[in-house]
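Q: What structure does this chain adopt?
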Amino acid sequence: MPGMLDAKIILVTGGSTGIGRASALILAREGAHVVIADVQDEEGERTVGLVREAGGRAEYHHVDVTDEARVTALVGDIAARHGRLDGAFNNAGIEGPSAKISDYGIEHWHRVIAVNLTGVFVCMKAEIEQMKKQHDGGSIVSTASAAGLIGIPGAAAYNAAKHGVVGLTKTAALEYAGRNIRVNAVCPGFIDTPMLGRVTDASVKIRDSLIAAVPMKRVAQASEIGDTVTWLLSARSTYVTGVALPVDGGWVAQ
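A:
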Protein backbone atom coordinates (compact mmCIF):
# COMPACT_ATOMS: atom_id res chain seq x y z
CA MET A 1 0.00 0.00 0.00
CA PRO A 2 1.53 3.37 -1.04
CA GLY A 3 2.47 5.80 1.70
CA MET A 4 1.38 9.43 2.00
CA LEU A 5 4.62 10.58 0.40
CA ASP A 6 5.37 7.77 -2.02
CA ALA A 7 8.37 8.66 -4.25
CA LYS A 8 8.49 12.26 -2.99
CA ILE A 9 11.83 14.00 -2.48
CA ILE A 10 11.92 15.66 0.94
CA LEU A 11 14.69 17.76 2.49
CA VAL A 12 15.05 17.72 6.29
CA THR A 13 17.46 20.15 7.93
CA GLY A 14 18.55 19.38 11.48
CA GLY A 15 17.78 15.74 10.78
CA SER A 16 20.51 14.21 12.90
CA THR A 17 18.71 13.97 16.23
CA GLY A 18 15.44 14.66 18.04
CA ILE A 19 12.48 15.88 16.01
CA GLY A 20 14.50 15.86 12.80
CA ARG A 21 15.52 12.23 13.14
CA ALA A 22 12.02 11.10 14.14
CA SER A 23 10.53 13.00 11.23
CA ALA A 24 13.02 11.56 8.75
CA LEU A 25 12.11 8.04 9.84
CA ILE A 26 8.38 8.70 9.48
CA LEU A 27 8.76 10.47 6.13
CA ALA A 28 10.78 7.55 4.78
CA ARG A 29 8.24 5.08 6.15
CA GLU A 30 5.59 6.95 4.16
CA GLY A 31 7.61 6.45 0.97
CA ALA A 32 9.71 9.61 0.71
CA HIS A 33 13.36 9.75 -0.30
CA VAL A 34 14.76 11.83 2.55
CA VAL A 35 17.70 14.21 2.14
CA ILE A 36 19.13 15.01 5.58
CA ALA A 37 21.19 18.17 6.07
CA ASP A 38 23.01 18.91 9.32
CA VAL A 39 26.40 19.70 10.82
CA GLN A 40 26.44 16.69 13.17
CA ASP A 41 27.92 14.27 10.69
CA GLU A 42 28.14 11.15 12.83
CA GLU A 43 24.55 11.46 14.05
CA GLY A 44 23.36 12.39 10.56
CA GLU A 45 24.87 9.25 9.08
CA ARG A 46 23.30 7.29 11.93
CA THR A 47 19.88 8.66 10.97
CA VAL A 48 20.49 7.54 7.39
CA GLY A 49 21.43 4.10 8.69
CA LEU A 50 18.26 3.88 10.76
CA VAL A 51 16.15 4.85 7.74
CA ARG A 52 17.81 2.24 5.55
CA GLU A 53 17.53 -0.45 8.23
CA ALA A 54 13.78 0.19 8.21
CA GLY A 55 13.69 -0.23 4.43
CA GLY A 56 13.59 3.46 3.53
CA ARG A 57 15.74 5.73 1.37
CA ALA A 58 17.90 8.53 2.71
CA GLU A 59 21.13 10.42 2.15
CA TYR A 60 23.17 12.82 4.28
CA HIS A 61 24.87 16.14 3.48
CA HIS A 62 26.97 18.37 5.74
CA VAL A 63 25.26 21.76 5.53
CA ASP A 64 25.28 24.80 7.81
CA VAL A 65 21.89 26.46 7.28
CA THR A 66 23.40 29.91 7.87
CA ASP A 67 25.60 29.45 4.76
CA GLU A 68 23.38 30.66 1.91
CA ALA A 69 25.74 29.51 -0.84
CA ARG A 70 25.91 25.99 0.60
CA VAL A 71 22.14 25.76 1.06
CA THR A 72 21.51 27.00 -2.48
CA ALA A 73 24.03 24.49 -3.82
CA LEU A 74 22.36 21.65 -1.93
CA VAL A 75 18.90 22.44 -3.29
CA GLY A 76 20.38 22.73 -6.79
CA ASP A 77 22.08 19.36 -6.37
CA ILE A 78 18.84 17.75 -5.18
CA ALA A 79 17.01 19.09 -8.24
CA ALA A 80 19.78 17.99 -10.59
CA ARG A 81 19.95 14.42 -9.23
CA HIS A 82 16.30 13.79 -8.40
CA GLY A 83 14.56 16.14 -10.83
CA ARG A 84 12.59 18.07 -8.19
CA LEU A 85 12.11 18.98 -4.54
CA ASP A 86 8.62 18.05 -3.39
CA GLY A 87 8.86 19.12 0.22
CA ALA A 88 11.12 20.50 2.92
CA PHE A 89 11.18 20.45 6.69
CA ASN A 90 13.28 23.36 7.98
CA ASN A 91 14.04 22.04 11.43
CA ALA A 92 17.64 23.01 12.25
CA GLY A 93 17.78 24.99 15.47
CA ILE A 94 19.59 25.68 18.74
CA GLU A 95 18.26 26.77 22.12
CA GLY A 96 20.84 29.31 23.27
CA PRO A 97 21.54 30.25 26.89
CA SER A 98 18.97 30.95 29.60
CA ALA A 99 19.36 34.55 30.80
CA LYS A 100 17.37 37.72 31.28
CA ILE A 101 17.69 40.33 28.54
CA SER A 102 20.04 42.58 30.52
CA ASP A 103 22.40 39.63 30.95
CA TYR A 104 22.02 38.12 27.46
CA GLY A 105 25.29 38.24 25.53
CA ILE A 106 25.12 39.81 22.08
CA GLU A 107 27.20 36.95 20.64
CA HIS A 108 24.58 34.45 21.81
CA TRP A 109 21.81 36.63 20.39
CA HIS A 110 23.45 36.74 16.95
CA ARG A 111 24.09 32.98 16.91
CA VAL A 112 20.55 31.96 17.90
CA ILE A 113 18.96 34.38 15.43
CA ALA A 114 21.34 33.23 12.69
CA VAL A 115 20.49 29.55 13.04
CA ASN A 116 16.84 29.66 14.11
CA LEU A 117 15.55 32.50 11.94
CA THR A 118 18.03 33.47 9.24
CA GLY A 119 18.70 29.78 8.60
CA VAL A 120 14.99 29.16 8.00
CA PHE A 121 14.84 32.17 5.67
CA VAL A 122 17.90 31.00 3.71
CA CYS A 123 16.47 27.49 3.31
CA MET A 124 12.98 28.71 2.47
CA LYS A 125 14.32 31.07 -0.17
CA ALA A 126 16.22 28.29 -1.97
CA GLU A 127 13.36 25.82 -1.63
CA ILE A 128 10.78 28.24 -3.00
CA GLU A 129 13.02 29.13 -5.93
CA GLN A 130 13.12 25.46 -6.92
CA MET A 131 9.42 24.84 -6.27
CA LYS A 132 8.47 27.80 -8.47
CA LYS A 133 9.93 25.81 -11.40
CA GLN A 134 7.65 22.84 -10.69
CA HIS A 135 4.10 22.80 -12.04
CA ASP A 136 2.85 21.11 -8.87
CA GLY A 137 4.71 23.44 -6.49
CA GLY A 138 5.58 21.89 -3.17
CA SER A 139 5.12 22.01 0.58
CA ILE A 140 7.38 23.60 3.19
CA VAL A 141 7.18 23.13 6.95
CA SER A 142 9.41 24.96 9.41
CA THR A 143 9.92 24.35 13.10
CA ALA A 144 8.77 27.32 15.14
CA SER A 145 7.81 26.62 18.76
CA ALA A 146 5.21 27.27 21.38
CA ALA A 147 7.78 29.97 22.22
CA GLY A 148 6.88 31.50 18.87
CA LEU A 149 3.31 32.03 20.08
CA ILE A 150 3.85 33.12 23.69
CA GLY A 151 6.68 34.62 25.73
CA ILE A 152 9.01 32.56 27.90
CA PRO A 153 11.22 34.46 30.36
CA GLY A 154 14.94 33.83 29.99
CA ALA A 155 14.89 32.95 26.29
CA ALA A 156 15.02 36.31 24.51
CA ALA A 157 16.74 35.27 21.29
CA TYR A 158 14.92 31.93 21.05
CA ASN A 159 11.55 33.63 21.55
CA ALA A 160 12.36 36.34 19.03
CA ALA A 161 13.59 33.87 16.44
CA LYS A 162 10.62 31.54 16.76
CA HIS A 163 8.13 34.43 16.59
CA GLY A 164 10.03 35.44 13.47
CA VAL A 165 9.60 31.98 11.95
CA VAL A 166 5.83 32.27 12.45
CA GLY A 167 5.76 35.66 10.71
CA LEU A 168 8.00 34.45 7.90
CA THR A 169 5.77 31.41 7.41
CA LYS A 170 2.64 33.52 7.05
CA THR A 171 4.32 35.94 4.65
CA ALA A 172 5.67 33.18 2.41
CA ALA A 173 2.31 31.38 2.44
CA LEU A 174 0.56 34.49 1.15
CA GLU A 175 3.21 35.30 -1.43
CA TYR A 176 3.21 31.83 -3.03
CA ALA A 177 -0.29 30.44 -2.48
CA GLY A 178 -1.02 31.14 -6.14
CA ARG A 179 1.99 29.06 -7.18
CA ASN A 180 0.75 25.96 -5.35
CA ILE A 181 3.50 26.27 -2.75
CA ARG A 182 2.18 25.68 0.75
CA VAL A 183 4.13 27.03 3.73
CA ASN A 184 3.32 26.08 7.32
CA ALA A 185 5.01 25.88 10.71
CA VAL A 186 4.78 23.47 13.60
CA CYS A 187 4.99 24.89 17.12
CA PRO A 188 6.13 22.12 19.46
CA GLY A 189 5.75 22.41 23.20
CA PHE A 190 7.87 20.26 25.51
CA ILE A 191 9.29 17.34 23.55
CA ASP A 192 11.40 14.47 24.84
CA THR A 193 14.57 15.35 22.92
CA PRO A 194 18.23 16.10 23.71
CA MET A 195 17.38 19.82 23.59
CA LEU A 196 14.87 19.46 26.43
CA GLY A 197 17.49 17.62 28.42
CA ARG A 198 19.92 20.49 27.96
CA VAL A 199 17.30 23.11 28.85
CA THR A 200 16.29 21.35 32.07
CA ASP A 201 19.94 20.52 32.81
CA ALA A 202 18.96 17.05 34.01
CA SER A 203 16.89 18.64 36.80
CA VAL A 204 13.93 16.48 37.79
CA LYS A 205 12.34 19.46 39.58
CA ILE A 206 12.44 21.67 36.47
CA ARG A 207 11.19 18.85 34.25
CA ASP A 208 8.32 18.10 36.62
CA SER A 209 7.32 21.79 36.71
CA LEU A 210 7.23 21.88 32.91
CA ILE A 211 5.05 18.79 32.73
CA ALA A 212 2.71 20.24 35.37
CA ALA A 213 2.12 23.26 33.12
CA VAL A 214 0.86 21.07 30.24
CA PRO A 215 -2.86 20.21 30.31
CA MET A 216 -2.13 16.69 29.02
CA LYS A 217 0.42 16.27 31.86
CA ARG A 218 3.21 14.82 29.76
CA VAL A 219 5.90 15.76 27.30
CA ALA A 220 5.51 14.64 23.70
CA GLN A 221 7.57 12.11 21.85
CA ALA A 222 9.49 13.46 18.86
CA SER A 223 7.49 11.12 16.62
CA GLU A 224 4.30 13.02 17.52
CA ILE A 225 5.81 16.12 15.89
CA GLY A 226 7.04 14.00 12.99
CA ASP A 227 3.53 12.69 12.35
CA THR A 228 2.23 16.28 12.16
CA VAL A 229 5.04 17.36 9.84
CA THR A 230 4.40 14.38 7.57
CA TRP A 231 0.71 15.29 7.31
CA LEU A 232 1.53 18.91 6.45
CA LEU A 233 3.98 17.79 3.76
CA SER A 234 1.48 15.37 2.25
CA ALA A 235 -1.47 15.69 -0.12
CA ARG A 236 -3.78 15.14 2.86
CA SER A 237 -3.36 18.80 3.83
CA THR A 238 -3.67 20.45 0.43
CA TYR A 239 -5.88 23.33 1.64
CA VAL A 240 -3.68 24.18 4.62
CA THR A 241 -1.20 27.04 4.32
CA GLY A 242 0.00 29.89 6.51
CA VAL A 243 -0.67 27.94 9.70
CA ALA A 244 1.47 27.97 12.85
CA LEU A 245 0.18 24.76 14.40
CA PRO A 246 0.71 24.17 18.13
CA VAL A 247 1.64 20.58 18.96
CA ASP A 248 1.91 21.11 22.68
CA GLY A 249 -0.64 19.12 24.67
CA GLY A 250 -2.82 22.22 25.05
CA TRP A 251 -0.15 24.39 26.69
CA VAL A 252 -0.69 27.63 24.75
CA ALA A 253 -4.48 27.24 24.83
CA GLN A 254 -4.48 28.25 28.51
